[in-house]
Design a protein that fits this description.
mainly alpha, 5 helices
């Protein structure tokens, strides 16, 4: 894969801590670019999932949003109604508490 040379501005203290972390973990400062690339890749969840799927032998890909929404279970009750019933039940048990109607 081709590489890109870039310039970034980072707080000096943050950069120094990053370099110390790389050198203390057994990495060499000569491979600092590789460490930065690895750190950036760690934020790419799609790539992480794709690598995992490949490693465990899962073929296919990711489902679309439409597929995910279509396979969601449908509840027989309203969450709002259930929460309201729990609140009213609790309010009835509290001495001196009057429920708003």
């Amino acid at each position: 894969m081709p590489t890109v040379k870039t310039t970034i501005n980072i707080d000096e203290e943050t950069w120094d801590r990053f370099k110390k972390t790389i050198s203390s973990s057994g990495g060499s400062l000569r491979n600092l670019s590789g460490a930065v690339e690895e750190a950036i890749r760690s934020f790419n969840t799609g790539e992480i999932l794709a690598d995992f799927m490949e490693a465990v032998g899962i073929d296919g890909g990711f489902p679309s949003l439409k597929e995910v929404e279509g396979s969601r279970p449908v509840a027989d009750t309203s969450a709002g109604e259930a929460v309201r019933a729990i609140r009213y039940e609790r309010a009835e048990r509290l001495p001196g508490h009057q429920r708003r109607r």
